[in-house]
What we know:
single chain, 564 residues, six-stranded antiparallel sheet, six-stranded mixed sheet, 29% helix, binds ligand 1, binds zinc ion
Amino acid sequence: xxxxxxxxxxxxxxxxxxxxxxxxxxxxxxxxxxxxxxxxxxxxxxxxxxxxxxxxxxxxxxxxxxxxxxxxxxxxxxxxxxxxxxxxxxxxxxxxxxxxxxxxxxxxxxxxxxxxxxxxxxxxxxxxxxxxxxxxxxxxxxxxxxxxxxxxxxxxxxxxxxxxxxxxxxxxxxxxxxxxxxxxxxxxxxxxxxxxxxxxxxxxxxxxxxxxxxxxxxxxxxxxxxxxxxxxxxxxxxxxxxxxxxxxxxxxxxxxxxxxxxxxxxxxxxxxxxxxxxxxxxxxxxxxxxxxxxxxxxxxxxxxxxxxxxxxxxxxxxxxxxxxxxxxxxxxxxxxxxxxxxxxxxxxxxxxxxxxxxxxxxxxxxxxxxxxxxxxxxxxxxxxxxxxxxxxxxxxxxxxxxxxxxxxxxxxxxxxxxxxxxxxxxxxxxxxxxxxxxxxxxxxxxxxxxxxxxxxxxxxxxxxxxxxxxxxxxxxxxxxxxxxxxxxxxxxxxxxxxxxxxxxxxxxxxxxxxxxxxxxxxxxxxxxxxxxxxxxxxxxxxxxxxxxxxxxxxxxxxxxxxxx
Length: 564
Ligand code: TI1
Ligand code: ZN
């Protein structure tokens, strides 16, 4: 079928970059209707203004001329109030913003924009128009005061989140006609912001004739519906791969949320909407702020970073559950919370003591960090550590904290190639294949610059970084223990010491046991070695006074990296 270009559009096309036609020709008017109201939601075409009228007069003449389409019986000047008049000098056009009113009281949610060309002709109208407004019977006398209405809202907010000592900024309160579920109310529309005890941007619609709450919602953080149905959901991960995962559906609205209630108290994934890292970390740690729910009208989710965070959190949860019978990060079933889209192009991920945070990466150095299973394993392991040894994030204990996060993060990955021993390879430098942020098998193959004499990550205690950047080198010296973990698992000869590898299944159990039963917040590298030998001895006892092969491998591995 041949596409017919309407005359107005054709005229505008000849002017390239300009959005509006300068030489108008008459074109058939195109009207789209609001499905509920059955009145126009847009009118595109050219309505010729009468000669010699002002812009405002032209606007009202236009609105009056559409009375039958708008199903209005009254006077357009009474029905529509001008709230803004803007001139765009680029296009020589004037843009009116109006709201509908009833007896001079504005109608909530009813706003229109009307665009006029330099000759006052109307070429576009958008908005919602209430049918039969002049004939409606709506109370217009408030018997409840503004202050009383604000009190009702405050009391209801505090019933939900506890005492609020301080509301941020002014509390907005406007008397409006509020159309809700087919009825029109005279209502106070109240907007109040809180940050403590919970962040909220509260909206209340209080009936001005009796003080009842007609409707309310929190525009910051929508809470999950009360009894959602568990559902299988799908979506593309950050690599464009179709994934299946657990979510929930609100039976009333049909909305789906990235909450998996099948794993202990749940795996819940949020969208931080690019809130800055520092602000997010503070709001999250102090107030439990997580960002917005990831919501979808169907069981298909369209946020790949969120889908990746969600499926990877499920995988890490399962790893700890199946391998160590651990019930979530605290072993008491705690809810696992992740927020994606932290900051702007943030090249990092973190555990802030309460939840996981993932940046989107800048696209060069890293892509969405939630796509790396080892990254998620790393961050969630910090959650396990803070509930067990609680290694201090400083110096050697900090390096062990980082190292255990890397080691468990690697074990979680079910890879058989070198990728298993690289950190973050799946999200690292998309243009360079086969590299990663750190290497456990050969830390010294990766350049970090500055910290060490060689400029490469240290793979021996003698090479350790002693400065105070990076909390005393927590991401630098982690490599020394990482190398020991690699040697223990895979075997090899390092600094002239040969280690017989014991394999992943044994190594992961020993590390987990050392972490959960022996290490403390101040443990150093030497204590790590002791904790490992103790854990191994528990599981693989000495025979006839001679250490088991497992204990021997640990001794050799730590000898090889110079830790005694
Ligand atoms: S726990 C977190 C600390 C970041 C602090 C910033 C507020 C961390 O260690 N993040 C990992 C992320 C990671 C993990 C990336 C595995 C890739 C693979 C990390 O190593 N971050 C590096 C970039 C760093 O912070 O130096
Ligand atoms: Zn870390």
